[in-house]
Amino acid sequence: LYPYLDFLIRLVGQGAYLQMQDGLLWAIPLIPFHAVLVAGVLRVVSGRAFADLYVAAACAMGATVLLGLLTDDGIQPLALLWDGRMGLKVLYRFDALVLGRSGLSLMVGGICYPFRHYVARMGLVCVGLYVLSTAGFAWQARGVGYDYAEAKGLEAMVVRALPQPLSPMNWRVLVEDGTGHVHEAMVNLKRKAAVKLPEEGATRAARIDALYKPVHMAVWRVVDRYGREGEDAAEIRTRAERAWRAWMETPFGWYGRYAVYDGVLEKPLGGGSAVCVRFVDIRFDGARDRANGEYVVCPAENGRARVFRPRGEGFVEVVPVMSVDTV
């Protein structure tokens, strides 16, 4: 749980949190140093040998960092040395089966204390096999995207398969065709027939699960990243494309990789005079927590961008803690 304490960065500010989230506490080179801190605290609490606690803490943190690297959100594996993020899109951020297997191993290990080492090893083997199987599902889901692009005659620029909650068979497939269009489908790799939409009063999990269709019945939605096309929309489309590309060059560019056009603001933000463009992360479009995926990008000097997030009835700028100008 130690790496997840980075949520405390929110106390510094939203810009600091977005920039440093999944960073310092998740950096692979810093695992030995974090393990010293964790082992020291456990040493005071439990009174056990520091060496044993250090090895356990380092291994646990290494496993947690590896699982974070396998998610779509990813981590900053080389924080302080490199500010880039990596996410292999194999596991959902909070995979229920991984959490369940881990919790079961802890419970069984506590009950069968003399055999706890064997229980822990079996738990690791089970999680490892599960990760390998989901990697195969990820490959299969990407194949769905490539097949769709070929059938539609698209010059697929990028095909992504994003793991989803509830089942390792549920995937969100995105195809970016290189012209600003994003093709999206939510599929279940195992189903042969669509799940009947649940009646009123059904659980939220049941309603969400019903959205994932069999591959042969996939419903593809096409969204334009820069807004609709047409002569009357050419200026807005140009503004949106410039804003998105400038956003990608900021320390918050990672959060715009799935963003699509959502409109323009009538009034400039932050004391500027330029037209600002609103984007929404396609993963949050239509969701109950849609605001978590909304961003506003305003042009700044030298072709740069200022990024804002919604707060209450207005917007607040997310300011980077540090940025390095490149020549």
What can you tell me about this protein's structure?
By secondary structure, the protein is an alpha+beta fold. 36% of the residues lie in helices and 17% in strands. The chain contains 7 helices and 10 strands. The chain has helices at 14-20, 31-46, 50-69, 96-111, 116-152, 204-209, 234-248, and strands at 158-163, 170-176, 181-188, 213-214, 221-224, 259-264, 277-281, 294-299, 305-311, 314-317. The strands form 2 sheets. Strands 1, 2, 3, 4 and 5 form a 5-stranded mixed β-sheet that branches. Strands 6-7-8-9-10 form a 5-stranded antiparallel β-sheet, with helices on one face. The longest helix has 37 residues, at 116-152. It starts with 13 loop residues before the first helix and ends in a 10-residue tail after the last strand.
What are the key terms here?
five-stranded mixed beta sheet; globular; 327 residues; five-stranded antiparallel beta sheet; alpha+beta; 10 strands; disordered C terminus
**Oligomeric category:** single chain
How would you sum up the global shape? globular
Strand content: 15-25%
CA-to-CA gap between the ends?
40 Å
How is the topology of this model organized?
Layout: H1 14-20, H2 31-46, H3 50-69, H4 96-111, H5 116-152, E1 158-163, E2 170-176, E3 181-188, H6 204-209, E4 213-214, E5 221-224, H7 234-248, E6 259-264, E7 277-281, E8 294-299, E9 305-311, E10 314-317
Parallel strand pairs: 3-4
Antiparallel strand pairs: 1-2, 2-3, 3-5, 6-7, 7-8, 8-9, 9-10
